[in-house]
Specification:
Order of helices and strands: HHHHHHHHEEEHHHHHH
Strand order of the largest sheet: 1-2-3
Strand content: under 5%
Radius of gyration: 25 Å
Number of strands: 3
Length: 360
């Protein structure tokens, strides 16, 4: 029920009171501390973009539109400069997920403001900025081009063969802390098989088996479904090298002694199961061995897009690609099939109805 009197707070004052309330909810278990800090950070950004001295009730839908667009183009300090430049060309710097999260935070602020009597009408009801204007597809989720993908694969193969992947930031690691073959295996599995990152870090050694001379990976996916995916020969060789070298060292001599890791495939040098958050760091390390011209920031899910896109572009049967990725429905592949530069030109040059008769 709306209070009788309107409290005309400034944007900054309303934000301070709202953040205090959000943080108080962590004491009752209503919110986790991490979630509360995300809300607080987004509200602070809203104050910066909207103007802390303005009266909150004076903001309308057009003002919030302007804030959403300004946030979409706001540089993300957590991303490498190259990724910022790449995104800026398309008008947006923030990822689509970050923009959606920011919008939810602002919406929650105004919902509370209506109940508290700080605004008469929720301006979010008249916001007109579309998803496309806010940035559209997340850049890191786009498939790598063939040159970018082969560059990353080449860097992973070099690591798997014991070659350097470029300069290492910070101090050099001790020999017992080096995990280059594991890093190579992570990238090759992501590019060649396209697993979800959760499927990758959950993998155990016993999930890999040999049938009729072919190495398979039994992947435990969503909804309790499993799928057996054959590994390309190059990936199988790196897997064998890792199992017989770095992983054996981690289990036998790591300071963690393998405690709690069970039969985990991917281990840290301390002998602990690799966490989801570690996978991005692994990809970034391998990227150091890629030529700068072919290097592009990409997430684990972006490599899943890469697998789907290039398999489909090479005319691999759609149902086979669906089974590799672990989708239950063919229609889901449409979200993973990204446009590749020059593919339309190649398709039209090889038009089946216009080929020379001698080629038929």
């Amino acid at each position: 029920m709306r209070p009788a009197a309107l409290n005309r707070l400034s944007v900054a004052e309303a934000a301070d009171r709202y953040v205090e309330l959000v943080r108080a909810r962590t004491l009752t278990g209503g919110l986790s501390p991490a979630t509360a800090e995300v809300y607080a950070r987004d509200v602070a950004t809203f104050v910066e973009l909207a103007g802390g001295g303005r009266v909150l009730d004076d903001l309308d839908g057009a003002d919030v539109d302007a804030v959403l667009l300004a946030f979409a183009r706001k540089p993300d300090g957590r991303r490498p400069a190259a990724a910022v430049v790449e995104r800026s060309a398309g008008g947006a710097v923030q990822s689509a997920a970050s923009q959606a999260r920011f919008r939810r935070s602002v919406s929650a602020l105004f919902k509370y403001a209506v109940l508290a009597g700080w605004v008469q009408v929720d301006p979010m009801a008249s916001v007109t900025v579309s998803a496309r204007q806010r940035g559209g597809l997340r850049a890191e989720r786009r498939a790598l081009t063939r040159e970018q993908a082969t560059g990353l694969i080449g860097a992973a193969r070099a690591l798997g063969a014991g070659e350097s992947a470029g300069p290492v930031a910070g101090r050099a690691r001790r020999r017992d802390q080096r995990m280059e073959v594991r890093d190579a295996l992570v990238v090759l599995l992501l590019v060649a098989v396209g697993p979800r990152v959760s499927e990758l870090v959950r993998a155990n050694v016993e999930d890999f088996f040999v049938n009729d001379g072919v190495r398979y990976w039994r992947i435990f996916g969503k909804g309790g479904r499993t799928r057996d995916v054959p590994l390309p020969a190059d990936v199988a060789v790196v897997l064998e090298g890792y199992l017989g070298g770095e992983r054996r060292r981690c289990v036998g001599g790591g300071s963690g002694g393998g405690g709690g890791a069970g039969g985990a495939l991917l281990l840290s040098w301390r002998g602990r199961r690799l966490a989801r958050g570690d996978v991005q760091a692994v990809i970034d390390r391998v990227q150091r061995g890629v030529e700068v011209a072919h290097r592009r920031t990409v997430t684990p899910h972006g490599l899943r897009h890469t697998t789907a896109t290039h398999l489909l572009a090479d005319a691999v049967d759609m149902d086979a690609v669906r089974r590799v990725l672990g989708h239950s429905d063919l229609s889901t592949l449409g979200r993973y099939r990204d446009e590749l530069p020059g593919e339309l030109e190649v398709a039209m040059r090889a038009h089946p109805l216009l080929r020379d008769r001698r080629e038929r």
